[in-house]
Amino acid sequence: MSIAGGVFNAFKFGEKHDCETIQIFVKSANQWKAKPFKLSDLEKYHDEQKRTGIEPVIAHAAYLINLATPDSELLEKSRRSFLEEMDRCEKLNIHYLVIHPGSHMQSGEQAGIDTVVESLNWLLERTVDHHVNITLETTAGQGTNLGYKFEHLGEMIDNSVNPHRLAVCFDTCHAFAAGYDISNKKGYDQTWKEFERIIGIDKLAVIHLNDTKKGLGSKVDRHEHIGQGELGKKAFELIMRDQRFRKIPKILETPKGDDGRMDDLNLKLLRKFASAKKKK
Asked: 60 pairs with which residues across the strands?
């Protein structure tokens, strides 16, 4: 949901679509810095959340941040920017801040993973009193992006100074593009079996529900409306009816229209899946 006009407006926009949970940026997605929150804006935010009952709110980090880069200047900038976002989440009482693990920029996957671990430790050591959890998102593996294998995320979490402050966001488009075939029951079950073995279902904090314009294993990150892409409807039926994920926040990141009509159509379809009885 947009935070145009003030972060508190996200609830008004979410209410329009009967949302129970929403995801926001806590500052501009394409800028490094942001003006500090006004006390009045924070008060409005908490008042609006109480009024609408929309919770939890999930935050997504700015796209410029790269916690895996070998460029020391960019790495420092990324860490400082993400630290600022963690502070902003703390003020908003947001407990999950989602971020793509980062891109190794030709330094190699292992070097990139090691840098991410160092970045996570740097952040965790500076936020010991925070309640926000750094939430690593599964990626499509486009370019030199890390996180397209469950093993990447598992290693980052296991090697951190405080694994309890780390969580995972599962993105359906990204997983399928990375090669996890969740489009059918057999592949879906196998994928979550692997997730449990390598990461652990208890680490799953958020699910991004997106169809994909590109095929299985394409490693191309292009979102599509639910049931209108290469992934198809079955994966979303399985997720919406999976009792393990009943209380996991589920977020749409499908293409936006001018009037929100497609958001409503996507939500209507997902709610239909959630309420439908299983076939015997």
From this structure: 98
Q: Which residue has the tokens 């299983």?
A: 278
Q: How far is CA 41 from the centre of its chain?
A: 25
What pLDDT shows up at residue 280? 41
The structural domains of the chain, ordered by start, are 21-274 (3.20.20.150)
Q: What is the distance between the alpha carbons of residues 32 and 29, in angstroms, rounded to a whole number? A: 8
Which one, of 132, 129, 134, 133, lies nearest residue 116 by Cα? 134
Per-residue pLDDT tens digits for 27-69: 998 899 899 999 999 999 999 999 999 999 999 999 999 999 9
User: Percent of the chain at pLDDT above 90?
Assistant: 95
Q: Say how far apart CA 227 and CA 211 lie, in whole Å.
A: 6
Nearest to 28 by CA among 67, 56, 63: 63
Token output for 42: 């924070």
- Report d(CA 246, CA 152) in Å as an integer: 26
Smallest CA-to-CA distance from 99 within 160, 161, 146, 163 is with 146
Average pLDDT over residues 230-244: 97
Give the alpha-carbon dihedral of 84, 90, 95, 99, to 10 degrees: -10
